[in-house]
Amino acid sequence: MSDRDKTLFLIDGSALMYRAHFAFLRNPLVNSRGEITSAIFGFLNTLMSLIEKEQPTHLAIVFDTAAPTFRHQAYPEYKATRQKMPEELVDQLGRLDQVLAATGLKILALPGWEADDVIGTLSRRADEEGYEVFMVTGDKDYQQLVTDRVKLYNPKSDGTLIWAPADVEKNFGVPPTQVIDVLALMGDTSDNVPGVAGVGPKTAVKLVREYGSVEAVLAAAPAMKPSKLRDALLEHADMARKSRELVTIDVHAPIDVAMDELTVQPIYNPEIERLLTELELYRVLDRIRGGAHAPADAPQLPATKRDYRIVRTTDEFRALITEWKRRKLLVSFDVETTAADPMHAELVGASYSVLDGEAYYISMAHFSGKPSGIRQFVRFGSEAEGALAAYLEIAADLLEDDSVPKAGQNIRV
């Protein structure tokens, strides 16, 4: 898209933050100080990919706030069923704020208004000023905002990445101008928007396609043949109207920001270097140091040399341990198991590091070799066999050697 003069990307920061966190839920990223950095890493990776690929001229990242909105005032149960933010994500918010502030990109949040409303307002304003706008989110509600110049950019889509009006109609069943009416009838369980009881997506689309709008559907309900659908429409007419109010994105939010403030500048600087080094997010830092993310006069800092290997055989593992002992290196190690309880855990893999930027991983599923038989490791009454026994035999020689300094998390010495 580099040939476009004025492109504005509006990122739903709250949605991207959650998506990044849950992408690493089973295997969170943790640095040497025990800080979980999954959401920060995932967020920045997506952000860097977007900037590298799409080269927007303008960009803003928009977040929700904790303050109640006009929707809560209109319907106190709005979003009442949502679960609290996971503690692991809460712990990362401060750091994420620091890193995003250090990028120099525009970060927006308006108390009393949702990110949807801020993005909707800016997209309309930018459209009027001749920009091509891309709303970066997977939230279906944004489909109501799509026009020929305001498009949906769905980063989690496994199909069409950019949705124009025709794509909305193909995927949702109605054009963008009728999305609100469908949402009002079907409701939204994630936001606790009730809609009309018993009306699902297919029925809602059918009704709107036939009658044109929520009001037209409700006006036609008394003349419909007796049925559960007719009864539901008559009984829940007021709730359908209330739901329409709740799902409508307000494009007149009082957000005071000029388009010039959203210009994308190179984002490398000493502060982001410091923060990402402190967080040990070296891969992301390497991306930011190079290419379009760094100014032309930025110092060309050498990337940290990294040698990360998978150890696949007993011979490789023995050779490494022999070298570590010879050089009297501090060995840092950790294990990956199937459970936190050691009495019920199976060993999945083990990792070792002895120098900065140098690490080794042994997967029990991909480790080959046979134990010598000198040692036997019995667990729950059965002998450890195959790769596990081979690994344990060699590892014991290292871990039981008092002359080798060791470090690890939650270990006993």
How would you briefly describe this protein structure?
It contains 15 helices and 13 strands. With about 425 residues, it is α/β, with parallel strands linked by helices.
What would your notes on this structure say?
Helix 1 packs across helix 2 (38-54). Among the domains are: 7-169, Rossmann fold; 307-408, 2-Layer Sandwich (Nucleotidyltransferase, domain 5). The chain has a six-stranded mixed beta sheet with strand order 3-2-1-4-5-6. It has a five-stranded mixed beta sheet with strand order 7-10-9-8-13, with no helix packed on it. A hairpin with an 8-residue loop joins strand 5 and strand 6 (162-163). It has helices at residues 13-23, 38-54, 70-74, 87-103, 115-128, 165-172, 179-186, 201-211, 214-220, 228-235, 237-247, 270-279, 282-289, 314-327, 386-399, and strands at 7-12, 58-62, 106-108, 132-136, 150-153, 162-163, 307-310, 331-337, 347-355, 358-363, 378-379, 382-383, 406-408. The chain is of the alpha/beta class. The protein has 15 helices and 13 strands. The N and C termini lie far apart (57 Å). The radius of gyration is 28 Å and the shape is elongated. The model is unreliable at 378-384 (pLDDT under 50).
Strand order of the largest sheet: 3-2-1-4-5-6
Strand tally is: 13
Would you tell me the overall average pLDDT? 87
Count of helical stretches: 15
List the helices and strands and how they pair.
Elements: E1 7-12, H1 13-23, H2 38-54, E2 58-62, H3 70-74, H4 87-103, E3 106-108, H5 115-128, E4 132-136, E5 150-153, E6 162-163, H6 165-172, H7 179-186, H8 201-211, H9 214-220, H10 228-235, H11 237-247, H12 270-279, H13 282-289, E7 307-310, H14 314-327, E8 331-337, E9 347-355, E10 358-363, E11 378-379, E12 382-383, H15 386-399, E13 406-408
Parallel strand pairs: 1-2, 1-4, 2-3, 4-5, 7-10, 8-13
Antiparallel strand pairs: 5-6, 8-9, 9-10, 11-12
